[in-house]
Specification:
- The complex is a heterodimer of chains A (424) and B (476).
- Chain A has two domains: 213 residues, PmbA/TldD fold (2-Layer Sandwich); 198 residues, no CATH class.
- In chain A, 21% of the residues lie in helices and 41% in strands.
- Chain A has nine helices and 22 strands.
- With 476 residues, chain B is of the alpha+beta class.
- Classes of the chains: A alpha+beta (424), B alpha+beta (476).
């Protein structure tokens, strides 16, 4: 397929291109309670081609692009017509000129993984066993679950020497735990692992079972007012994503974000912890073929890096880093127990927590939270929190305990003062 | 004009027929769904213009569904020729089917009957005025550029205006022992986002547009850019709302979000199978004001989620979900319907041929009523007009509401005061909100500019909407 596409590009006289060929196999299991409801396999090969066109109008120089999806079933004539149409279309895309990323041919990379040598079906079975290992009670159980075991190879080539490839294995999925002890409630969880982390999945199921039992006991919403709020689990990731998003070159060049290297992203003199973040390379090469490596993003509240692909990097005159798929934050100094020594509202499950990277507003409806009034801890449900990071970042305190989430490694919890809660 | 049949599907159909017949030699039931679609995204902003194929929506591929006498299994692939038929059959028999041989202790295979397969031979296409492929990339970009420039010129406080559009032209073929169905569907959608700035803070306002048709939509986008820009400027002057329960008027976009997120997900009957939806206990009971009638269906409206048959070969329906406040029925895919002993409603939809079919909404809406919008506003002594639906999340299990809107316009003594509050989180219990509906406008609108996920994945095109509604809603 790759050779056919390259030959067609040459025949059409396309000088600049980026070709990505992806081959993927998967094994998928879908469970409803303790029954396998459906089994699926997938074997597909897809290719996408970005056609570049340089042109001038008056004294202005432009770089246009148009992308197309290529199928194995397309004939040479169809490919040529597709590429010629895309080249024509690229002539209407008047983006400021930039050069394609220049690279070299590299040896294919097998992303190290303990899943690499196992048949997909065997991996699916192993994770299914881990999933159901803790499902032993009648009052709280797995309501449903899905497991996707994927093995994929990505080959990236461009007209400026890039010729790189990698192979990766991943297990991902989701499950719902239902508790019928008292109130009938449920908790949704997703998961993703790059290794044979069946113990981690088993622990996640166990934790979710405990959390769901707690939710079954929660009856009332917290009263409306301002609270010292603790966010935990994946919500720490979502909260910190504001800084990752605002420091992207695609946000900075159009002036959607005023972040600059060296600027204090936390604003002024915070009373709480300083923010530290490191961008994490989750694949060996970016979509453009840029070799990826971990890069420090924020040190003690000061921005160290503007990250992104080659186009906006050239516009800003900075080094392209490639687009990252994850990040990590270091542990804080306070233990969870210390964070919980004063009254707090710890939200462990939202229906959907959202951080708006433009406005800095964050919020969500509370599915389960623990309210400590200084005397006792009460599980609560309902109502919503609503805050703004410009205020919240003055008082952040991160937990000493760490978590490894999907594409995020960092503190298990973050605490902030004076967050508004709309009660029931 | 009718959308034309895919040439590729026409050519490959004899091979698909051979593959189906070969699978039927091995299994009591086998079906094939073939998809060939082109899809493009266009975008213009101050610093960036783009023309891209849509990786999610574009592509050619197939999914084979087989039944072994007990349960169902699927194999997705995208390379097919006469020579590959035996390779595919071997993969189905040798790799797919043994996956259920070794299950965790205490877990067994589901036991289903065989899917209904009465004779259905069918071919039809949707209609359009302007084919976006024939209209051409140049004209699409030219029109979006005008919209983007108009938005940026609206005020010096406008930071940027992004105008965008997408289309999908999708042909599908469904083959089973007794079914031979073909459909060709074209939709186009688009929108405008205007960003306005004051200091470090950036506020944005969005409006979407959609049509079951083609590039004739682009004119609509241009007509509304001024209104979106003004909303973004209004947001710069907004302040947080004091939490509380208020009388509210919801514009059709907000009504649509309530219909879809707060209630619609709860009547997806695969959730009934899993006992994950409270609605299961409320069939035949009052869940909304008597003024409320709610529909879903690919055949219920002409919008972006319209089609003739679903991804399991079930013809499109118009399902009356709420009839004068009484919950009458849910919507379902074929397998869930079999599980529940009900009829499938043509709601079995896949993100694309690579994914499983789930029960999914299509075009979901409340019927219009008889009230005038101005009378509805005049009826409120203190409350808000809610506009600019931004996001929502379902909670079928508990019927909790989480919807966010960008704009709450203050109403005092029956008049809009000009004061704007933002952002707004709607919370509460779904039936409480729906039962509080006291007025419904005689005007109605549907929009399908976005996608709907099942949880956090499986994106499909949907539309939702309805009339302006008056209800008591908790805002925060």
């Amino acid at each position: 397929m790759t050779d056919r596409i390259l030959a067609a590009l040459k025949k059409c006289g396309i000088e600049d291109y980026l070709l990505t060929v992806t081959e993927e196999e998967s094994a998928e299991l879908f469970f409803i309670k303790k029954e396998l409801d459906m089994q699926r396999r997938k074997k597909v090969r897809t290719a996408s081609v970005v056609i570049y066109r340089a042109f001038e109008e008056g004294e202005q120089r432009f770089r246009g692009t148009a992308s197309v999806k290529v199928q194995d079933s397309q004939t040479e004539a169809e490919l040529c017509r597709l590429f010629a149409d895309a080249y024509y279309a690229a002539g209407f895309v008047k983006n400021k000129y930039y050069d394609l990323y220049e690279g070299t041919k590299e040896e294919p990379v097998e992303v190290a993984s303990t899943l690499a040598d196992r048949p997909l079906a065997e991996t699916a079975q192993g994770f299914a066993e881990a999933l159901f290992a803790e499902d032993v009670r009648e009052d709280v159980f797995l309501n449903s679950a899905e497991i996707f075991v994927r093995r994929y190879t990505v080959h990236i080539l461009n007209s400026r020497g890039v010729d790189v490839a990698y192979r990766k294995n991943r297990v991902q999925g989701e499950f719902v735990v239902q508790c019928v002890d008292g109130q009938d409630v449920e908790t949704y969880q997703d998961f993703a692992y790059n290794d044979w982390n069946t113990d981690a999945l088993r622990e996640k199921v166990r934790d979710t079972i405990e959390l769901t039992c707690a939710r079954a006991k929660a009856k009332n919403a917290p009263a409306a007012g301002e609270y010292r709020v603790i966010l935990s689990g994946g919500y720490v990731n979502e909260f910190l994503s504001y800084y990752v998003s605002r420091s992207a070159s695609s946000m900075i060049y159009p002036k959607y974000s005023a972040f600059a290297v060296g600027c204090d992203v936390q604003g002024g003199e915070p009373e709480g912890d300083r923010i530290n973040l490191t961008m994490k390379a989750v694949v060996p090469f970016s979509d453009e073929g840029i070799p990826m490596k971990d890069r420090e993003l924020v040190r003690d509240g000061k921005l160290q890096l503007i990250h992104g692909g080659s186009r906006f990097a050239q516009y800003l005159g900075i080094e392209p880093t490639g687009i990252f798929g994850g990040y990590r934050a270091p542990a804080g100094e306070a233990s969870l127990a210390e964070l919980k020594a004063q009254p707090y509202l710890e939200v462990v499950n939202f229906s959907d927590f959202q951080m708006d990277s433009f406005t800095g507003h964050f919020g969500g409806e509370i599915r389960l939270a623990f309210l400590y009034d200084g005397e006792k801890v009460t599980p609560v449900t309902g109502g919503s929190i609503s805050g703004n990071i410009f205020e919240a970042q003055k008082s952040l305190r991160f937990s000493k305990e760490l978590q490894v989430e999907k594409n995020f490694e960092g503190p298990k919890a973050v605490c902030m003062d004076k967050v508004s809660v709309a009660g029931a | 004009m009718k959308v034309k049949q895919s040439e590729y599907l026409k050519e490959i159909k004899p091979v698909l027929v051979k593959l189906r017949d070969r699978l039927l030699e091995e299994f009591p039931y086998a079906s094939l769904l073939a998809q060939d679609s082109t899809a493009k995204n266009y975008s213009v902003s101050k610093t960036s213009t783009g023309i891209q194929m849509d990786g999610l929506l574009a592509g050619r591929g197939f999914v084979a569904k087989v039944y072994d006498g007990t349960s169902y299994a699927e194999y997705s692939f995208n390379e097919l020729s006469e020579e590959k038929i035996e390779e595919i059959v071997t993969a189905v028999k040798g790799e797919l089917m043994p996956m259920s041989d070794r299950l965790p202790e205490g877990v067994r295979k589901s036991c289903y009957a065989m899917l209904a397969d009465d004779v259905l031979v069918f071919a039809d296409s949707t209609e359009y005025e302007l084919d976006p492929e024939e209209y051409g990339d140049e004209k699409v970009i030219e029109q979006l550029t005008k919209v983007s420039e108009a938005g940026r010129a609206y005020s010096d406080k406008v930071l940027d205006c992004r105008a965008f559009a997408s289309y999908q032209k999708c042909s599908k073929l469904f083959l089973s022992k007794n079914r031979d169905m073909e459909q060709n569907v074209l939709w186009m959608c688009g929108g405008v986002v205007v960003m306005a700035t004051r200091g470090e803070e950036v506020k944005d306002s969005y409006r979407g547009f959609s049509v079951l048709g083609g590039a004739e939509l682009l004119e609509e986008i241009g007509k509304n850019v001024g209104k979106v820009a003004q909303n973004a400027l209004d947001l710069l002057e907004s302040e947080p709302i004091p939490p509380g329960e208020y009388e509210c008027i919801c514009e059709p976009g907000v009504t649509g979000m309530i219909v879809h997120e707060a209630f619609g997900h709860g009547v997806e009957m695969d959730m009934f199978v899993k006992n994950r939806a409270l609605a299961k206990q409320y069939v035949g009971k009052q869940v909304a004001s008597e003024l409320v009638n709610m529909h879903d269906g690919a055949g219920a409206a002409r919008e972006v989620a319209s089609y003739f048959f679903d991804d399991e070969g079930v013809p499109a329906h118009d399902t009356l979900i709420i009839d004068h406040g009484i919950l009458k029925a849910g919507i379902s895919d074929a397998q869930s319907a079999m599980h529940l002993g009900t009829e499938p409603t043509g709601n079995g939809r896949r993100e694309n041929y690579e994914r499983k079919a789930y029960t999914r909404m299509t075009n979901t809406y409340f019927e219009p009523g008889s009230d005038k919008v101005e009378d509805m506003i005049a009826s409120i002594s203190y409350g808000f007009l809610l506009e600019d639906a931004s996001s929502g999340m379902e909670d079928p299990k508990n019927w909790g509401i989480q919807c966010m809107v960008n704009i709450a316009r203050e109403i005092r003594d029956g008049k809009l005061t000009g004061k704007v509050y933002s952002p707004i989180v709607l919370t509460g219990y779904v039936p409480d909100l729906l039962k509080s509906i006291s007025m419904i406008s005689d005007t109605s609108a549907l929009c399908g500019s976005g996608f709907c996920g099942k949880g956090y994945k499986e994106w499909v095109k949907v539309s939702d909407g309805g009339p302006y509604i008056k209800a008591k809603i908790r805002l925060g």
